[in-house]
Design goal:
This protein has about 90 residues and is an alpha/beta fold. The protein has 3 helices and 4 strands.
Amino acid sequence: MSDGHSASVDVLVIGAGGASRAILHALLQAGYRHIDLANRTRDRAAELADLFGESIHAAPLAAIDERAADADLVVNTTSLGMSGEPPLMLDL
């Protein structure tokens, strides 16, 4: 691909709200084909993954350390880590 990434690049998106919908769309349009979607409630991640197709894989939030270790790109779409919010507990 001309933008420097390959279809084998793994991405982890954390959160399943409105921002993650935009990120998932953009990642798919850019050619990413394996995206893990982790959310506090796995059911919500699964619902969103179903909307976007087989490239999106739902995961529980408890799995983010494991998924992040294998990811080439991590996108946090939650409020965790923002000013006034608790930190995103992620072991990079």
